[in-house]
Design brief:
The protein is mainly α. 86% of the residues lie in helices and 0% in strands.
């Protein structure tokens, strides 16, 4: 039972990441190509918007952690903001390195960087730190 639940949680988290990521990626291209912002700034803006979408989906659907405790959402928002700050920094830096050092187009470099950041940084921190459910809360929610 535990493994099945963990697999479904992981798959739902990937859907949330995909929707937030698609928004993020599309806006990055829009801001870079249409508004002529440097892709690092575009990643900052688009990453923030994508993060808001991702947080909402994760909180209310993936981890179903929408309890009415306002202090809990404040804590989750703060932690999520720290993860997003790290994620945007890693994505910007990784994309810039791939573009400057290896001459990879920023759109491709961003996809490469995202795959590492999403699975190796975002998912573990979001699951085990941002939306971690304490044992006491698990007992209350299962009743």
């Amino acid at each position: 039972m535990f493994k099945k639940k963990a697999i479904f949680t992981f798959l739902r988290a990937q859907v949330a990441a995909f929707v937030g990521g698609l928004t993020d990626y599309g806006l990055m291209i829009l801001f870079t190509e249409i508004f002529k912002l440097h892709f690092s700034f575009s990643i900052l803006i688009s990453g923030t918007i994508g993060a808001i979408i991702n947080f909402s989906i994760n909180r209310f659907w993936v981890f179903k952690n929408q309890s009415g405790y306002s202090s809990r959402i404040n804590s989750q928002l703060f932690k999520f903001a720290l993860v997003v700050l790290g994620s945007i920094s890693l994505k910007s830096f990784g994309t810039l390195i791939l573009q400057k050092v290896f001459q990879i187009d920023y759109r491709i470099g961003r996809l490469i960087t995202d795959s590492f950041v999403s699975y190796g940084f975002n998912y573990p921190l979001i699951k085990y730190w941002v939306f971690k459910i304490k044992k006491e809360q698990k007992a209350i929610e299962s009743n």
